TrEMBL record:
Gene that produces this protein: purF
HAMAP family: PurF (MF_01931)
Binding-site positions, [4Fe-4S] cluster: C258, C404, C453, C456
Phylogenetic placement of the source organism: Bacteria, Bacillati, Bacillota, Clostridia, Lachnospirales
Name of the protein in question: Amidophosphoribosyltransferase
PROSITE patterns linked: GATASE_TYPE_2
Cytoplasm is among the record's keywords: no
Location of the active site: C15 (nucleophile)
Calcium recorded as keyword: no
GO molecular function, one term: amidophosphoribosyltransferase activity
Length: 475
């Protein structure tokens, strides 16, 4: 599927979060901008930055909007964002729809000052929490889960002596997947759900601390990677340094990182929970070559996330690795969520086959997933039109059979091609000469002894999820 199918079928991660606190009082907005730039792959729908000055009047300055980071922010906009404490966000909607008011971070003024919140993930009990708040007089400005979390933090803050305890009390009520970056007037707080479904890590550059969804964003601001925030951990950064609260943690065997971070979402140069994403994808490709060998002349990957798995397939099989596609990186938001009828043309705009490479050859095409099958069918058609004799498709994830409730936009059962068709039927529908999916039991080879969530393939959710008739989106 790769970057391309995210653009054309709507399988997508919800968000990327980033936070910065400069103890020396310098402006952090430029660093937050570069951090978000490095997390752009996690969401292209909207973005935002909110900053505050912990020394002065503690006024929050924020800017957000629909579009890519470099479309929403220019140098002039960044120069107006003065403050040494900042929170940033890139968004792709899974729950809540595409609306300007749903852009994050959320800035809430309340009795104790101003609360800024950026959130990656999805709550499984958002509907009842929202209802409960509405019946006690809460008025919602957005349709996103994050506002429910923010209300609970603000409400809890009235009963406790510090913002981090308010975050902890809110965590006792919310269920689901979340990585949170929160700023109160003088603190930067990071929290990760007890299952560790969503990633979050810590970085440091001189006297500035960073929180980020992925380590690639820490590297982008020239900071040192310190460590991952542990599942269930709350990190608090103040002018006195960093403190940790692990009282919400659960036992390691119950933790459930999203396996799809390693297959597709995360950037290949990131390391999450001590597992290097590039290495995990190489292992996935090798596992595919062991499970589904085939006689062929060339192994190619669909950009971007199919490329590394293709390299692994090539190494294991001994079949040469080649580049069969040119990807156009300059297609902006126009092609993020086109209608089904426009998907075919958007595939061609996004990706071109290099005829010289594939003509007269038997090709193994490695991709990370098949959601609806439309994109795979188009790419195979393009390869064969360019003269490929055979196209053998290898997918570095098992078939999608179940929806995700944790912030990954895996659509409902009826839109998942594997839910209602056999592998052989899918092979025929997409026009492949053979088709092999990653075996579920081989997923663990990618991540070693890390416990993970593979519910979208197996239906084994790490927690109770809403009934299938309950929609998680508020439309």
């Amino acid at each position: 599927m790769g970057e391309l199918e995210k653009m054309t079928t709507g399988l997508s991660e919800e968000c990327g979060v980033f936070g910065a606190y400069d103890m020396d009082g310098g402006d952090v907005a430029p660093s937050v901008y570069y951090g978000l730039f490095a997390l752009q792959h996690r969401g292209q729908e909207s973005c935002g930055i909110a900053v505050t000055d912990t020394y002065g009047e503690r006024k929050v300055h924020s800017k957000k909007g629909l579009g890519l980071v470099n479309e929403v922010f220019d140098e002039e906009a960044l120069q107006t964002l003065h403050g040494n404490l900042g929170v940033g966000h890139v968004r792709y909607s899974t729950a809540g729809g595409t609306r300007a008011e749903n852009a994050m971070p959320l800035v809430l003024k309340y009795v104790k000052g101003t609360l800024v919140i950026a959130h990656n993930g999805n709550l499984t009990n958002a509907i009842e929490l929202r209802r409960e708040l509405e019946y006690t007089g809460a008025i919602f400005q957005t349709t996103i889960d994050s506002e429910v979390i923010a209300y609970h933090i603000a409400r809890e803050r009235l009963n406790v002596s510090c913002a981090e305890d308010a975050v902890k009390n809110a965590m006792k009520k919310i269920k689901g997947a979340y990585a949170l970056v929160v700023s109160s007037p003088r603190k930067l707080i990071g929290a990760r759900d007890p299952f560790g479904l969503k990633p979050l890590c810590i970085g440091k550059r001189d006297n500035t601390y960073f929180l980020a969804s992925e380590s690639c964003a820490i590297a982008a601001v020239d900071a040192e990677f310190v460590r991952d925030v542990e599942p269930g951990e709350i990190i608090t950064i103040t002018k006195n340094g960093i403190t940790s609260d692990k009282s919400m943690a659960i036992s390691p065997e119950k933790q459930a990182r999203c396996i799809f971070e390693y297959i597709y979402f995360a950037r290949m140069d990131s390391t999450i929970d001590n597992v290097n994403v590039y290495h995990a994808r190489i292992l996935a490709g090798k596992a595919l070559a062991e499970s589904y060998p085939v006689e062929a002349d060339l192994v190619v990957g669909v950009p971007d996330s199919g490329l590394v798995a293709a390299k692994g397939y090539s190494e294991q099989s001994g079949i040469p690795y080649g580049m069969a596609f040119h990807k156009n990186s300059y297609v902006g938001r126009t092609f993020i969520k086109p209608k089904q009828s426009q998907r075919e043309s958007s595939v061609k705009i996004k990706l071109n086959v290099i005829e010289e490479v594939v003509k007269g050859k038997r090709i193994v095409m490695v991709d990370d997933s098949i959601v609806r099958g439309t994109t795979s069918a188009n790419i195979i058609k393009m390869l064969k039109k360019a003269g490929a004799k055979e196209v053998h498709v290898r997918i570095s994830s098992p078939p999608f059979l179940h929806p995700c409730y944790f912030g990954t936009d895996v659509p409902s059962d009826d839109q998942l091609i594997a839910h209602s068709h056999t592998t052989e039927q899918i092979r025929e529908m997409i026009g492949a000469d053979s088709l092999g999916y990653m075996e579920v039991e081989k997923l663990k080879d990618m991540v070693g002894d890390l416990s993970y969530c593979d519910a979208c393939f197996t239906g084994n959710y790490p927690m109770k999820v809403p009934g299938r008739d309950v929609s998680l989106a508020f439309e």
